[in-house]
Amino acid sequence: MNYNLFIINAFxxxxxxxNPAAVCLVDSAKDEGWMRKVTKEFNQPVTAFVWxxxxxxxxxxxxxQKQELRQCGHGTLSSAYVMFDEVLLKDTTINFYTQYSGIxxxxxxxxGIQLDFPAFPSEPAEAPPELCRGLGVPxxxxxxxxxxxxxxxEDAETVRKLQPDIGLLGTLPVTGIxxxxxxxxxxxxxxxxxxxxxxxxxxxxVTGSAHCALGPxxxxxxxxxxxxxxxxxxxxxxxxxxxxxxxxxxxGRAVTISRGVLSSEINVV
Length: 269
What we know:
Layout: E1 3-10, E2 19-25, H1 32-42, E3 46-52, E4 58-64, E5 68-69, H2 73-86, E6 93-98, E7 103-109, E8 112-118, E9 123-124, H3 129-135, E10 139-145, E11 148-153, H4 156-161, H5 166-169, E12 176-182, E13 190-196, E14 201-204, H6 211-222, E15 227-231, E16 237-244, E17 247-252, E18 254-262
Parallel strand pairs: 2-3, 4-6, 11-12, 13-15
Antiparallel strand pairs: 1-2, 1-18, 3-4, 4-5, 6-7, 7-8, 8-17, 9-10, 10-11, 12-13, 13-14, 15-16, 16-17
């Protein structure tokens, strides 16, 4: 059986920017080993596998080149975009049942696709020596959440020019390191970058899940909600964030880069 495949850039509406993901539409839940092999073959930062459930909703799993992810913002946005814009799903809401993180809901809006994810509030933390040496710049504040360390730097320019020691950051026992500062661009409230070498992603271009921590961090500091964030990676991308108690609604756009079909031979493992 052939499966439809799409390469999507998430959190952007332009080619060569945003966060790329492969989205593979399969007929049912697949063997984990097979999904890992397909992910390696695509060689994208993340591959999402989406299949229809008997209840009319959809299942989804995401894999990086190194491991399965418990949740993935840009993989979910890309999957929702494929269902709305490529499959032409008539509904404006889609429910994704995940392997580990419950149900994620996607809404099609005028501004883009809005996702409903759990918030990742942070708590003040002591910066370990490896973090300080790995970043190599003055640190204004350090907090910790489910994703890892959230580090506020002195200014937006420091965030943009940061050249961390990825090898040293990869020794920290956390998923990733999120650096951020107040934006110096009038269109955005804050900027950020996200490094996750422990899961095989030296720098993630645009990270939806990171904004589940950035929203709760910046909203009280800036006295503002919703907020607009820009992730200042080489590719770059923007995300709108609305903190709703223990949930975060974040919105982004996406664009299709390529469409294809998986050969039926790839099903023979």
